[in-house]
């Protein structure tokens, strides 16, 4: 027996060990019991209990029991000793799984005599065989009886009153030994809020510390020049873009270093916002840097920034791994002298010999693709430059305020006017011929198509299509009509670049690829996206892939080839055909997959909550965040005696140093 093996080292750990679930031990009438529900039913034994043995040490004990007007067939597996406990005419209560259709009860616990229970709800704990359940309950009860009076209240009194929350000592008792379902719910409500509030308090305090210790630069940009650039754009900024630009510019003007995340759906116009921010920094006398994950993306950004800013006298330059020799030396000299205003590039930007004259703004695109060290090295190229992270992965609001809690978040959730919504269709495998015929019509108009597959080659375990096979099939199907390229993860970086450039230049009509097709790659001529075995992908990934098309003025299409067996798979396909809104889909994805899987793997930034659930309790999360912001921003929080426990908690967690409290 080892309580330590389940993380119980102190009496406090024991009292705060959260039940996994509760068994409803109230007596149920057979007519009220739901099918497959675990129930407790009282009745009188009508037939002599009989035991039948089969196999090695296996047995089945059966008898009939009368409960109200129902005769129930009761079965106990591998508990033959129960035969001696009760006989015909005895009143018993049986707890077990109810089969409504067969009027049968698969028993787990048999008690003889009139039903007596101290509570209607019993806590069940995940103990991993460390200790018997009954003994654990007994230890928890002893701990509460002996030490319950010493439990300190940690939530401020005004919050307890505002939300009518249980006091901590009362909530701990009700968590383990609830007297009713309502009391159990109230105890859970208290701890869900407490967990979120503690977490958000840490995040908001961290944000305050980062801001105050950052010693940022005040960028006094030229508003008139910025407005002139906005007026010169060939399109009108959406309201969401305007709001994002205003938030970023306000950060740049403040004495604190900007630490902001810019979230925008595929094609929502993040690049335009980034360009305006970089231009604002240049008008303030600084240089800007934009770091992106791949060369082809860097080239695209460099071209669009050059086109937008050249007539305003802004000198932009591109630095990637392929820029070498004299050209590279000349570029670095121009950068160090301040001749280059904005540098766009890949991780080549963070090499030691890349020196800026006066770096004011750093933007990283698809920031999750760069390591923390890479981002830090780029920041170190200037004296506390403002930092903006961009991502085209719509992150649900609940995750954004949890994972990026110490950052400010700007969201572009509007599409530019005139952009045609991508038409999405879900087709079963037998309809593949029709999909290919439709694609042929599009290709005949001079358009291009992506075809995405989940695997590179055949796997015995997984029967779904793979890129090598599909490439061979399509090359044969369109033989002599269209050229088919192939891209997958086993190609070298240079090989991938070469394939992508051929597709961008319309030398390839069809690109068969695994999911390595880069986020942000811009091929306006591609109007068809076919995704094989679409049920194998998460909603966010499907949406990202769909965003590779629909970048030009022509109508674009996304075809999901899928035969999902599960309800979740069917829900995903339906959701994709119903909306093009990445934020709506990301919320649905979070709901279907849970926060742990949202990022494809367990995200280190996700906190482990004992009771709180970010998806179902999102309102409590948002409320706790607003409350935490108010507290951290209030001078009385840092001095008032009533908040000393919360301040101590922040110090213990490493968010604050002891000096901060003096």
From TrEMBL:
SUPFAM superfamilies hit by this protein: Nucleic acid-binding proteins, P-loop containing nucleoside triphosphate hydrolases
Helicase ATP-binding domain mapped to chain residues: 251-412
Catalytic activity: Couples ATP hydrolysis with the unwinding of duplex DNA by translocating in the 3'-5' direction; ATP + H2O = ADP + phosphate + H(+)
Taxonomic superkingdom: Bacteria
Keywords: ATP-binding, DNA damage, DNA recombination, DNA repair, DNA-binding, Helicase, Hydrolase, Isomerase, Nucleotide-binding
EC numbers, comma separated: 5.6.2.4
Domain annotation Helicase C-terminal: ranges: 431-591
Enzyme class: isomerase
InterPro entries xref list: ATP-dep_DNA_helicase_RecG (IPR004609), DEAD/DEAH_box_helicase_dom (IPR011545), Helicase_ATP-bd (IPR014001), Helicase_C-like (IPR001650), NA-bd_OB-fold (IPR012340), P-loop_NTPase (IPR027417), RecG/Mfd (IPR047112), RecG_dom3_C (IPR045562)
Gene Ontology terms for molecular function: 3'-5' DNA helicase activity; ATP binding; ATP hydrolysis activity; DNA binding
Gene Ontology BP, a term: DNA recombination
One of the Pfam families matching this protein, by short name: RecG_dom3_C
Protein's job: Plays a critical role in recombination and DNA repair. Helps process Holliday junction intermediates to mature products by catalyzing branch migration. Has replication fork regression activity, unwinds stalled or blocked replication forks to make a HJ that can be resolved. Has a DNA unwinding activity characteristic of a DNA helicase with 3'-5' polarity.
Family: Belongs to the helicase family. RecG subfamily.
Name under which the protein is recorded: ATP-dependent DNA helicase RecG
